[in-house]
Amino acid sequence: MTDSAEIRAKVRVRNLTVRFAGKETLRNLSLDIYPNERLAIIGPASSGKTTFLRCLNRLNDLQHTFSHTGEILLDGKDVYDPDVDLARLRRRMGMVYAVPEPLPWTIYENLVFGARLAGIRDKDDLNERVERSLKSAYLWEETKDRLHQPAHNLSGGQQQRLCLARVLALKPEVLLLDEPCSGLDPISTAKIEDALVELTASLSIVLVTNNTKQASRVSDRTAFFLMGELIEVGPTQQIFTTPAHERTDAYITGQFG
Amino acid sequence: MKQDKLIALALLMVAFSAVSGLALITVFIFKEGLPIIVKTGPGNFFLSSDWDPSSGNFGIFSMIAGSLAVTLCAMVIGTVFGLGLAIVLGEFCPPGLAAILKPVVELLAGIPSVVYGFVGVVTIVPLIRTYLGGPGLSVLASSIVLGIMVLPTVTSISMDALRAVPRTYWQGSIALGATKWQTTHMVMLKAAKSGIAAAIILGMGRAVGETMAVIMVAGNTLEVPHSILDPVRTLTSNIALEMGYASGQHREALFATGVTLFVIIMILNTIALAMARRGAGEGRTR
């Protein structure tokens, strides 16, 4: 993945400033997300990584104190435009949280919930989505015989892969991951990382992670956030070997954060 | 150390006397009430509508029917408004407004029941008489008054149940493209259903036991109601209305009415507790 301007950005963020109750959480941030790339966002705690992610699919709207300036364009259209269909936006930009949160139903019901909300009733279509998304999330083999059992019976790592599969069943265009492996065992982590690499054949991924090793393993480009500002963004290899900023270097080599 | 033990002992005695007071009341009303049930025969006592203490007929069926009718209608009203209020306050309205509305609803619990009854007599009863017919003093009037009286119970316990649902369910559902309303009724209400059931049953216990307001608006006739516009007498009203002049068997029969009420409310509370406990268990399955 090259950083050339010719590639049309999937998501274009321009001069985004976010405030909660008047307090700035993100400051004048501009960043592009390209088609079929894996962008990692790293940075110390409270640097605005999660806030950034939650701006993209407008989850921050749920907080009454949230306000923003600047624009976020998905395929050229501002996601904060008043006539944007929020439900559709959130289906196009799927999100996986740090803590697996399957709904208190069966595995199958978790997977088809979003598709049903989108109006899909056809059984074959739903079943196809279930199988394909479970396979993409490396969970099919473990669950194909127990689809109608409660999702809470799965292990933590399996639950997180279910949450990933649940989002994939909606065929999203951008996948937002908020420290998806922070509480997982190495095997589940490896499975999710493998899945992410394969998934970029059909979508873009934004991966917020506290694990710089994970960023270097998985991503094409890496962005470094600090105190609500984008310090630098570039090809992952460059960020990890010859960062332009000493703060980036200091963070990656573990001097703070 | 010695002081600690003394205080512990004192507290234990206070706790014990409270519980033993309850136990004594229970023993007392059963002792006073049971003999007349046995003497009349449970079939006659519970299933006959012939209540004529002066000629020794003690059948409380019309009052059981009255209590059930009033309670059920009141719970329909109380549940629709109470649960609706809980959903709006908990999920939809801005926190500032909720901070004002919730105490207002809770304040309803502090209004003496005689005031509810009075407002019912002065406003609701004439409205029903004018627009719907009948005497006005009726099942409907008592249900409306009781429905408002159980609002604080139903609302605040339902809100607690909704709040106990893990916030991650809400977030996960929203991120999958569900609207707030879809999330509320497909995810939140489903997950909180046992707590909400407990809220309704506790409200029901309150409605069954309410006396003063009901006496004022129910009409208190000894008949099984055939429509919601008919007047009724409830179990509680019967005790309160006749306690002043009852003696002998009549007095025992009133205690027996109390025993019936006691058992009904115990059953409702047990169901509510069991449901609330099951709900708490479900929340922890992970």
Summarize the SSE layout with pairings.
The complex is a heterodimer of chains A (257) and B (286).
Chain A: E1 11-20, E2 23-33, E3 38-42, H1 49-56, E4 66-74, E5 77-78, H2 86-92, E6 93-96, H3 107-117, H4 123-136, H5 140-143, H6 156-168, E7 174-178, H7 186-199, E8 204-208, H8 212-218, E9 221-226, E10 229-235, H9 236-241, H10 246-252
Helix pairs in contact in A: 3-4, 3-6, 4-6
Chain B: H1 2-40, H2 42-47, E1 51-52, E2 57-58, H3 61-92, H4 95-107, H5 113-131, H6 139-164, H7 167-175, H8 180-191, H9 193-209, H10 212-218, H11 235-242, H12 248-283
Antiparallel strand pairs in B: 1-2
Helix pairs in contact in B: 1-12, 3-6, 3-9, 4-6, 5-6, 5-10, 6-9, 6-10, 7-8, 9-12, 11-12
3D structure, described in words:
The complex is a heterodimer of chains A (about 260) and B (about 290). Chain A has a domain at about 10-100 and about 175-250: P-loop containing nucleotide triphosphate hydrolases (Rossmann fold), CATH 3.40.50.300. In chain A, about 35% of the residues lie in helices and about 25% in strands. Chain A is built from 10 helices and 10 strands. Chain A starts with 10 loop residues before the first strand and ends in a 5-residue tail after the last helix. The model of chain A has no long low-confidence stretch (mean pLDDT about 90). Chain B is mainly alpha-helical and about 290 residues long. Chain B has a domain at about 55-245: Orthogonal Bundle (MetI-like fold), CATH 1.10.3720. Chain B contains 12 helices and 2 strands. At the A-B interface, helix 2, helix 3 and helix 6 of A face helix 7 and helix 8 of B.
